[in-house]
Amino acid sequence: MLDQPHETVTPVLTQGEIDRRVFELYDEYCHGGMDRRTFLQRAAAVTVGGLAMAQALFPRYADAQTVSFTDPRIKARYVTWPSPGGTSGTMRGYLVQPTGAGPFPSVLVVHENRGLNPYIEDVARRAALEGFLALAPDGLFPVGGYPGNDDDGRTLQAGLDAAKLRTDMLNSARWLKTNALSTGKLGVTGFCWGGGATNFLAATLGADMNAGVPFYGAAPETASVPNIKAALLVQYAQDDERINAMWPAFEAALKAGGKSYEMFIYPGTQHGFHNNSTPRYNEAQAKIAWDRTIAFFRKNLA
């Protein structure tokens, strides 16, 4: 699925050509602080050319695809599974496996705050190419699924019961871990909201989760950190004050509990730097972060 058609014809600008204030407005917009119209109006007012800068930040999913849906090295399909206690009792997601009989170590790929968009599906395909059974659940499935554009997806996700949505992700992780194609070794990665969900799952699953790689995700409640048994690779953007401010308390709790963790802050990056569908993408640092992710999963899910 592609995002809204008009988003694919807006000007292509590089990160360096976009005013920092427009990026700050975009971050607020992405996290539900304003609607699209308000974002565009405020960007236009903040600087000359601000409207074009704002339009350039909307995702271009077709251009960002790195692994084809039909790549012969993988097998992909949509699957459903029970999710008791979740939004509707049933979940759906995108399951991608390497070619071969398996079993494979498994990786749950958790979306941002807008449902299972094409970028997250592409990340699942990337993980499968590296030898992992990857599942990308769609938290919006109980309310109709990812609607084909991020604005409506964000609105739908914001309207869900947060606890039930987390339960849907918890059930997704357990379903993947026990899948016949899985070795039983479970890793989780996620981005933005999905990064926070990765931390939540680590604190909730305990020994049932082997490794977690949260990308710029909210820290879990400090009181839940002692339950973490998974090794963690925590990935932050340099310019992401809201999320980074949570790290000192999170790290203190990890240290106090003797947990296994690594943390990296990527220079010259902003929140969302791994997402290659917008100019917030930092190609060099995203590659370093992804290579670390794969190496970490190979080490901890062997």
Characteristics:
disordered N terminus, 8-stranded mixed beta sheet, 302 residues, Rossmann fold, 11 helices, 2 domains, 8 strands, alpha/beta, globular
Detailed description of the structure:
The protein has helices at 20-30, 36-46, 50-56, 61-64, 118-129, 150-158, 162-177, 193-205, 241-244, 247-256, 283-300; strands spanning 74-82, 90-98, 104-110, 133-137, 182-191, 211-215, 231-239, 261-270. It has 302 residues and is α/β, with parallel strands linked by helices. The chain has 2 domains: 5-62, no CATH class; 66-300, Rossmann fold, CATH 3.40.50. It has an 8-stranded mixed sheet, with helices on both faces. α1 runs antiparallel to α2, α2 (36-46) crosses α3 and α7 (162-177) packs across α8. The longest helix is centred in the C-terminal third of the chain and has 18 residues, at 283-300. The radius of gyration is 18 Å and the shape is globular.
